[in-house]
Automatic annotation (TrEMBL):
GO molecular function, one term: D-malate dehydrogenase (decarboxylating) (NAD+) activity
Keyword NAD: yes
Family: Belongs to the isocitrate and isopropylmalate dehydrogenases family.
Domain of life: Bacteria
Transmembrane segments: none
Alphabetic keyword roster: Manganese, Metal-binding, NAD, Oxidoreductase
Enzyme Commission numbers on file: 1.1.1.83, 1.1.1.93, 4.1.1.73
Species per Swiss-Prot/TrEMBL record: Falsiroseomonas stagni DSM 19981
SMART domains the record matches: Iso_dh
Pathways per UniProt: Carbohydrate acid metabolism; tartrate degradation; 2-hydroxy-3-oxosuccinate from meso-tartrate: step 1/1; Carbohydrate acid metabolism; tartrate degradation; 2-hydroxy-3-oxosuccinate from L-tartrate: step 1/1; Carbohydrate acid metabolism; tartrate degradation; D-glycerate from L-tartrate: step 1/1
Range of residues in the leader sequence: none
Necessary cofactors: K(+); Mn(2+); Mg(2+)
Protein known as: D-malate dehydrogenase [decarboxylating]
Function: Has multiple catalytic activities. Apart from catalyzing the oxidation of (+)-tartrate to oxaloglycolate, also converts meso-tartrate to D-glycerate and catalyzes the oxidative decarboxylation of D-malate to pyruvate.
Length: 357
């Protein structure tokens, strides 16, 4: 029997609703498959922990997490705390501490869901956005001076390293190579940002030599945003910087129908550290505590976690169950349904057990 050690961190808001839903589904899945178990430990880190302890996670939190095979994460964000405290104090601490340099964001319009794009038919959109997750515009490099004076200044410097760009390109080419279309779009803004982005283009060309079966092309980020709306079927795998891919992947989530169905994985492809799997949405103050959060993004990211853990069969089984439930019209209200989180979860568990829906 294979055992995978999972650290569950629901954190804030609807994270506390969708992660328990995801764990219930994972338990049903392990039972159905019968050849692996998940050894789950829960951590109460987040904004309430901050109110009690003055920090989002314990000082030795990363040390504790190192023992796990994967981290299953909900969302952070609290009405009464600044976002930079909650985000940097927990989620980014894990991403950076564990060098999770590849952020993978798949996008599809699931059966039964409608894209806000009028012309999109099911199957038209099947994208994977690969986001550089460790440097670039979010390297935290910069500062403030002359505070409070008329000449006050703030700088925010983007950092691109040869090692950092090369490894994200390799990850992106590997993913593109593993998909049927073998098409990679390298997104930059090398017309206007003539240092870092030209460097990015050069390294893409270097890495491309090792992937002769992958067709690759360059696209400027603004043109890419338009193309995602106008010619969504022309896109397959996309790689972009931390900032550019952050924006493009929210656009992708919206195109798929709702943020509530968009998953992500923060990977350390070298596997020195545990990788982290999460829905891309935040803590959603407006619906937290109401039991109506869409758990589909959290289920989908669980399929990515299972794949990463070497359980692709279970991953596929879960994704098929989710698709059957969506197609059967058992949907939360953000995607046009009336079901609660619990009803969607029950339906997915029933589908996993092989029931007719
Ligand atoms: P949000 O993603 O929390 O919510 C945006 C909108 O989408 C809301 O109307 C919300 O109700 C809806 N939504 C999100 N997830 C949903 C789901 N699963 N089912 C149904 N509807 C869903 O973004 P926001 O409102 O900008 O941010 C709220 C807080 O979350 C902020 O503190 C922000 O910093 C934080 N945040 C955290 C993360 C993260 O932890 N990765 C990501 C984004 C935002
Ligand atoms: Mn974002």
């Amino acid at each position: 029997m294979r055992t995978h050690k999972i650290a569950a961190i629901p954190a804030d808001g609807i994270g506390q609703e969708v992660i328990p839903a995801g764990l219930a589904v994972l338990r049903a899945l392990a039972e159905r498959c019968g050849d692996f178990t998940l050894d789950v430990e829960h951590f109460d880190w987040g904004s309430d922990y901050y109110r009690a302890n003055g920090r989002m996670m314990p000082e030795d939190g990363l040390e504790t997490l190192k023992r796990f095979d994967a981290i299953y994460f909900g969302a952070v964000g609290d009405k009464d705390l600044p976002d930079d405290i909650t985000l940097w104090g927990l989620r980014l601490k894990i991403c950076q501490g564990f060098d999770q340099y590849a952020n993978i964001r798949p996008t599809r319009v699931l059966p039964g869901l409608t894209s806000p794009l009028r012309a999109v038919e099911p199957g038209d959109i099947d994208w994977v956005i690969v986001r550089e997750n460790s440097e670039g515009e979010y390297a935290g490099h910069g500062g403030r001076a002359h505070r409070g004076h008329p000449e006050e200044i703030a700088t925010e410097t983007a950092i691109f390293t040869r090692a950092g760009v090369t490894r994200i390109m390799r990850t992106a080419f590997e993913i593109a190579k593993s998909r049927p279309r073998r098409l990679l779009t390298v997104v930059t803004k090398s017309n206007a940002q003539k240092h870092g982005m030209v460097f990015w283009d050069e390294i893409a060309a270097e890495v491309a030599r090792d992937y002769p079966t992958v067709t690759w092309e360059k696209e400027l980020v603004d043109a890419m945003a338009a193309r995602m709306i106008q010619r969504p079927g022309s896109i397959d795998t996309v790689v972009a910087t931390n900032l550019h891919a952050d924006i493009l992947s929210d656009l992708a989530g919206a195109v798929a129908g709702s943020l509530g169905v968009a998953p992500t994985a923060n990977l350390d492809p070298s596997r020195r550290y545990p990788s982290m799997f999460e829905p891309i949405h935040g803590s959603a103050f407006d619906i937290a505590g109401k039991g109506v959060a869409n758990p589909v993004a959290t289920f989908w990211t669980a399929t990515m976690m299972l794949e990463h853990l070497g359980e692709p069969v279970a991953g596929r089984l879960l994704m098929e169950a989710v698709e059957r439930v969506c197609a059967a019209g058992i949907r939360t209200r953000d995607v046009g349904g009336t079901a609660t989180t619990a009803e969607v979860t029950e339906a997915v568990i029933a589908a996993i057990k092989g029931a007719n829906l």
